[in-house]
Amino acid sequence: MEKITGKNNDIIKGVKKLLTSSNQRRAQSQFVLEGARLVFDVLNSFVDVDSFFITESAYDKYRESADLMIEKSNCSYFISDEISSKLSETKNSQGIFAICNMSSSSIELNPHNKYIALDNIQDPGNLGTIIRTAEALGIDGIIIGGGCDLYNPKVLRASMGSFLRIKYMICSNLHECLNELRIKNSYRIYSTSPSIDAFNITKADFSKGCICVIGNEANGVSDAVLEVSDEIITIPMLGRAESLNASIAASIVMWEMLR
After folding, report:
1. CA angle at residue 90 from 54 to 152, to 5 degrees?
2. Among 95, 161, 176, 224, which lies 20 to 30 A Cα-Cα from 60?
């Protein structure tokens, strides 16, 4: 296996660019995973691995999983601790990285299933946490309408590998996407709102196939999406807070959808 020691190596420059640039990720249709848990989670997914990078000390520690990654990858490299530190997006690098190919984001939605849609979620931590919670609770898939880059390293870390397992689709226009699903597949569309005039979520009927929309952190669900919604729902709050964090609200909504 080839060893890379120079920080100015073109391959390493390419990895760093993928880590820091969403434009580069889109251009190459690739993203980077960092850390033992995320990288080795790929072994139990359908994600294709282009390149695998590991320090010699990390290889000694994770030899069995590393050997499987080497088999799964098109190219594999040993890297120095110095390069690992340069690449790392975390304070203490584990010395393990992988360049993966983006998979198709189109999924066949089942009209009897339950999905959550995200309307322009901007914070990577929120997006990653929502993905992790959705996968944990058993939501059938996520529809992502705008917002931050799904392959942002902060999103990937916050999702704790759940994005590798949950089904998702990305819509350039969430309003049009939801309207089409509503007409063709008879989905019931619920949009969340902090308004006291909205319908109490605990009384909503989630027994059939449906899609619940979580809105942008600052502006909530867009007017265009509200217009195609069958019901505007709210989480009742007894305290003085006007609204909930997007990922917290999503967690409560998903729990109510599935209970």
Report:
1. 90
2. 161
User: CA 186 to CA 23: how far, in whole Å?
Assistant: 36
Encode pLDDT of 129-158 as tens digits: 999 999 999 999 999 999 999 999 999 999
pLDDT tens for 73-109 read 999 999 999 999 999 887 788 999 999 999 765 677 8
Six-digit token string for 7: 């920080």
CA distance 117 to 37: 27
Helix and strand numbers (H, E) in the chain are 11, 12
For residue range 204-255, list pLDDT tens digits in order: 999 898 999 999 999 999 999 999 999 999 998 877 777 789 999 999 999 9
CB 49 within 8 A of CB 72: yes
- Record the tokens describing residue 47, joined without a space: 């994600």
Q: Kindly provide the b/e burial profile for residues 181-200, where b requires at least 16 CB atoms within 10 angstroms of the residue's own CB.
A: bbeeeebbbbbbbeeeebee
**Interacting residues of 75 by C-beta distance below 8 A, sequence separation 6+:** 50, 51, 52
* Residue 149: C-alpha distances to residues 33, 141, 156 (Å): 14, 17, 10
Kindly report the number of other CB atoms within 10 A of residue 113's CB atom. 15
**Torsion 14-19-20-25 (CA) sign:** positive
Percentage of the chain exceeding pLDDT 90: 75
Closest CA to 187 of 250, 224, 143: 143
